[in-house]
Amino acid sequence: MTPHEHARIxxxxxxxxxxxxxxxxxxxxxxxxxxxxxxxxxxxxxxxLELEEKTARHENKPAIELPTARRFMFPKxxxxxxxxxxxxxxxxxxxxxPMPQAAKRLMEAGERKMEDIxxxxxxxxxxxxxxxxEAMSTIALPSSQIVAVNITGANTGLxxxxxxxxxxxxxxxxxxxQDSVLDGPDQLCLAASPKSLLNLWNEAxxxxxxxxxxxxxxxxxxxxxxxxxxxxxxxxxxxKERKTGNIQDIPMWLKSKVVLGDWxxxxxxxxxxxxxxxxxxxxxFTAGAxxxxxxxxxxxxxxxSV
Length: 306
Prior knowledge:
Elements: H1 3-10, E1 31-33, E2 41-46, E3 68-73, E4 76-84, H2 88-92, H3 99-123, E5 126-130, E6 136-139, E7 146-147, H4 160-172, E8 188-192, H5 194-201, H6 204-207, H7 209-213, H8 219-222, E9 227-228, E10 231-235, E11 243-244, E12 247-254, E13 258-272, E14 279-291, E15 297-303
Parallel strand pairs: 1-13, 7-15, 8-10
Antiparallel strand pairs: 2-3, 3-5, 4-14, 5-6, 8-12, 9-10, 11-12, 12-15, 13-14
């Protein structure tokens, strides 16, 4: 048997992709900013104002400055290169060099990495500034924005009670309420791990006939639980790094309060390497993310061992 014939047998007749996470579940549910550039990108913010009662007929109180602040996003760059030998074409015969397949796999890797960036900007320490000054400081998500794992006295997983508590926090922050528009900029979202979402499926309210008869609540008919108490539910395997022991962080956020900054849109380059004669393909992108307000994000602690 010649090497050429052996290669044809070894590689079979067609390419098949191995299972992996292929998409970024968060992308449609955050705010995109394509204007980012430089060492860091700033998001200017104006603060809250209060009115004072007029107490004299000819009262002339001095004007005040408009409260301002800013958030900083810092870029992170990622790339990967796949190479093919100059003889791969004839070795693979009818299959050909899998350039399109390699490009697709690189793009899928980029989608997964972008989800990591969004979670980091949403949940980790944020960099802030005051007014027009460029002085930077950091701020973590306060305990008031965290739903405890033992809110009922004992550790529990992702439950309806915890989601309701998260909704209450947003309401008390004047961040979400009856005038909020589903699928709009103030859409309230939650990203759960598969195990935590399964715990919610076991809740009596989800398995009840009343919930199942609701148009958007037929998880056992469609296999998908899309909304719960007005919260858009997403499932992702990208929360593995947000787990300590059995305790999983489940983020809730307002779509308008989590921003992804795009420094360099994803690019795929293909070229022929002159030294080896083989083909090269590279995928790269540069992006960063941040939450715009601590009040716009809540973390639910869920015990995945129960």
